[in-house]
Specification:
The chain is mostly helical. It has seven helices and two strands.
């Protein structure tokens, strides 16, 4: 959303000095939008950690509870379990790298690295579908939130009202210059 008076400088400083009713309305609209975006961001983070926790729980649980060889992918290898553990470790590495480190929520990549689990057990097909669907939804919501001003914290602006016609003593009341000399004296100790 574009704002008429709120600029990136105001967002970075966190303070907006209101001088007219239009500016006040613009800041109020900005603050209301930041509350809505923060709610969306919290929902996104809750679902994100649910997916991470589900993957961290389901993958080792199925590996532990079902140690026999998958009948669809039987291979004559004496160390079949090591192959399964390698596939599971590859999935864990790629999931952590793309989703948690890179913040890449592309469902096609998720399909590729989650499909590594299917040779272990066909039950993982449900996990593949669930992860791909959730990565698609995550990617869509993340694209919307990334383009908004204030991303990723969506902090609200503090509204101040200091008029130009007020005397200069009003600005001195809000200044911290008198404390700076005390701090510099303390640094010499």
């Amino acid at each position: 959303m574009k704002y008429r008076y709120v600029t990136q400088e105001h967002i970075d400083s966190g303070v907006f000095n209101v001088k007219s009713a239009e500016e006040f309305a613009d800041v109020q609209a900005y603050n209301a939008n930041m509350i809505n975006f923060r709610k969306q961001r919290y929902r996104f983070l809750a679902e994100y950690w649910w997916v991470v926790g589900t993957n961290a729980l389901i993958v080792p649980l199925i590996m532990y509870c079902k140690p026999e060889i998958n009948p669809l992918f039987q291979i004559n290898i004496s160390n079949y379990k090591w192959l399964l553990y390698t596939l599971c470790a590859s999935f864990a590495f790629l999931f952590i790298f793309f989703v948690m480190h890179k913040k890449d929520y592309d469902w096609r990549k998720c399909l590729v690295y989650t499909s590594l689990l299917v040779p272990i057990d066909t039950v993982y097909i449900i996990l593949v579908i669930m992860n791909c669907l959730l990565m698609y939804l995550f990617g869509r919501l993340d694209k919307v939130l990334r383009d908004e001003p204030g991303y990723p914290h969506f902090a609200q602006l503090k509204v101040t009202i200091i008029r130009e016609d007020e005397d200069k003593d009003a600005e001195e009341k809000y200044s911290f210059d008198k404390y700076k000399s005390d701090v510099s004296d303390m640094e010499d100790l």
